[in-house]
TrEMBL record:
This is DUF72 domain-containing protein. It comes from Tenacibaculum geojense. SUPFAM superfamilies: TM1631-like. The lineage of its organism: Bacteria, Pseudomonadati, Bacteroidota, Flavobacteriia, Flavobacteriales. It comes from the Bacteria.
Length: 299
C-alpha cells in the first residue's frame, strides 16, 4: 500500500494518540462474549508476498488460509468476481477463516455513493456466498470525499442492511480535524452500529482518531519498511490491551507494507505478541516451515 508513504519515516512521530474519550463509553456497552481476533494481510498473491510460499505450493489461497485466519480482501475493490469465485474461495478455506471484502470503487470512487443501490445489492449478493466466513465489509472513500458530502454518507450508512457488519474509512482530513464534523461523523456511525476504520500510516497521522464507534477495532496498519515498524506494533499491543480491559471483544487487524512482501513477517511478529499478551493460540505464519523459497527477513 502506497497510501501515506513518506521518504523519511525516521522523521515521523509514531506515538499513538490517547484513546478518544467516547471510546470508553462505547466499550462499556460491549457484551461479555469471548475475545475474537483476526489478523491478516491485504492479498494472497504470490508475486506480492514473494518468499512467503513454500516451494511447490499449488494453490496460494489454500496455503495462505492455513497460515492466517483472515484476509482483507482488497481485490473486490477493483472488480466484482463471479459468484462461482466466492463459492470456490469459501470451499478452499478452513473453518474459522474470514474474508473482509472491500466494496468496489464503482460505489465509492466513481459514483461517490450516488445512485448505488443496485450495484451495492449486487456486491452484497456475491459477498453473502461466503456465509459464516464473511467478516466486516469495508467501504473506503476517496481522498477528496469531504464532509460536504455528509448527506450521501448518511443515506448510505442508514440504508445499509443492519445484519451485515460494515466499516467506513474516510480519508479527507476534515472528517477528523474539524471537531464539529468529527462529532457528527462518529455519531452517525455509532447510531447505526458501523465501525470507524483506523489507519496507521506514516504520512497520515490524522487518521489515528482512536474513536471506536462499536465493539470492533478495525485497524489497517501500514508499515514504513523501517525498523520502527516493530516498535509501532508493540505500541498497538499496549493500546489493544487497554481497549480489551475496557470491554473490546473484536479485533480486526490487517498488515500492509509499501513493499507487501514483508507484510507476513510483520503480521507473524504481531500474532506472537497477541498470543503472549492475551493467551491466544493463533497460528504463527511459517513458524515451522523451513522450505519457503527464500524465507525473507525484514530490514
Amino acid at each position: 500500500m502506497k497510501f501515506g508513504k513518506v521518504e523519511n519515516p525516521e522523521n515521523i512521530d509514531f506515538t499513538l494518540p490517547k484513546t478518544h474519550f467516547d471510546t470508553s463509553k462505547v466499550l462499556k456497552q460491549s457484551s461479555k462474549d469471548k475475545l475474537n481476533v483476526f489478523v491478516g494481510c491485504a492479498k494472497w498473491n504470490r508475486a506480492e508476498l514473494k518468499g512467503f510460499y513454500p516451494r511447490g505450493t499449488k494453490d496460494e489461497l489454500t496455503y495462505y488460509s492455513s497460515q492466517f485466519n483472515s484476509i482483507e480482501l482488497n481485490a473486490t475493490f477493483y472488480r466484482l468476481f463471479p459468484k462461482e469465485q466466492f463459492i470456490k474461495w469459501y470451499d478452499k478455506t478452513p473453518s474459522g477463516f474470514k474474508f473482509f471484502p472491500k466494496l468496489g470503487q464503482e460505489i465509492s470512487h466513481f459514483k461517490r455513493l450516488q445512485n448505488v443501490d443496485a450495484v451495492v445489492n449486487e456486491y452484497i449478493d456475491h459477498f453473502v456466498l461466503l456465509k459464516e466466513k464473511l467478516g466486516t465489509i469495508f467501504l473506503q472513500l476517496h481522498n477528496n470525499f469531504s464532509p460536504k458530502n455528509f448527506k450521501r454518507l448518511q443515506d448510505f450508512v442508514e440504508s445499509w442492511p443492519k445484519e451485515l457488519p460494515l466499516t467506513v474509512e474516510c480519508r479527507h482530513t476534515d472528517w477528523f480535524t474539524d471537531p464539529n464534523v468529527a462529532d457528527d461523523f462518529y455519531s452517525l456511525l455509532e447510531d447505526n452500529n458501523v465501525s470507524n476504520t483506523i489507519v496507521d500510516t506514516a504520512g497520515r497521522r490524522d487518521m489515528l482518531h482512536m474513536r471506536l464507534t462499536k465493539d470492533e477495532a478495525f485497524i489497517r496498519y501500514v508499515g514504513a519498511n523501517h525498523n520502527s515498524d516493530y516498535r509501532r506494533l508493540d505500541d498497538w499491543i499496549i493500546r489493544l490491551k487497554e481497549w480489551v480491559n475496557m470491554g473490546l471483544k473484536n479485533i480486526h487487524f490487517f498488515v500492509h507494507q509499501n513493499l507487501e512482501q514483508e507484510s507476513p513477517l510483520l503480521a507473524a511478529y504481531f500474532i506472537k505478541q497477541l498470543n503472549k499478551e492475551f493467551g491466544l493460540s493463533l497460528i504463527i505464519p511459517n513458524e515451522k516451515d523451513d522450505d519457503s523459497d527464500s524465507q525473507i527477513s525484514l530490514f
